[in-house]
Each structure stands twice: as structure tokens, then as C-alpha cells.
Design brief:
19% helix, two-stranded antiparallel ribbon, single chain, 7 strands, globular, 3 helices, alpha+beta, five-stranded mixed β-sheet
Length: 125
């Protein structure tokens, strides 16, 4: 067995404490590898609580065909059981200028969480 499989494991108690602590942290969220999915879930489920807060995250670049030249997603794959159920999670990022970064390039960005609409659905950027 790979020795790194459980490297990012946290107990249920730690998970719940971290989850509650997110609402009381300083206004700048840092999406660390260990807590990436937890923070993503809390931000997307509690948009109004996090709207306007600074965030730093890293992930790979993903683009849809209808994105503007200054838009891209900073994302990661979330695997809950096995590779067959992997899904993309991430945030739409909008920049002041055109972004020529190639898809699948890993990058770290810092920005402000804002609620917007993408394809007639609420989205975070």
C-alpha cells in the first residue's frame, strides 16, 4: 500500500472543528491541500458568509469554450471513492487581462470571492 494514502487524513472531530473554524478565521482563506475539498464545500454552500473574503488557492487551469479570454477555472479533481467517480471542483477566476496560460497548467492565485452567474446559474469567482 502507498504510504501517502492516509497522509491527509483528519479525524471526524478535527474535520468538524476545522469546518466551524472557517467562519471565524481571518478574512483571508488559504486552501491547503489537506482541507481543499472541505473549504470548497463550505464556501459553495455558504456563499453569503464568504462573499468578499480573500482566498488563495492552487490547482490546474481548465477552460470551457464559452469562457471569455480573461476567465478560467482553477480546479482539482475530487475523488470520493475511486477514480471512476472523480469530478472537477474549482472556482471560476476572472482576471483584469487576457490569460494565455495553457490548460492543465498548475498555478496559485489570490483573489476575492464574489458571486456571479455562469450559464444562468449562480457561480463563485
Amino acid at each position: 500500500m502507498d504510504p501517502n494514502v492516509y497522509k491527509n487524513k483528519v479525524s471526524k472531530e478535527e474535520y468538524e472543528w476545522i469546518q466551524q473554524d472557517l467562519f471565524h478565521q481571518p478574512p483571508h482563506l488559504k486552501m491547503e491541500d489537506t482541507l481543499y475539498a472541505l473549504i470548497y464545500q463550505e464556501v459553495t454552500q455558504n456563499i453569503n458568509m464568504f462573499n468578499g473574503r480573500k482566498i488563495t488557492l492552487n490547482g490546474f487551469v481548465y477552460r470551457e469554450q464559452d469562457f471569455a479570454s480573461n476567465q478560467l477555472v482553477i480546479g482539482r479533481f475530487l475523488i470520493t471513492h475511486c477514480i471512476a467517480d472523480a469530478g472537477l471542483i474549482g472556482f471560476l477566476a476572472e482576471f483584469d487581462q487576457e490569460m494565455t496560460v495553457s490548460e492543465d497548467t498548475w498555478m496559485e492565485v489570490t483573489g476575492t470571492i464574489r458571486l456571479t452567474e455562469y450559464q444562468a446559474r449562480p457561480s463563485l469567482y
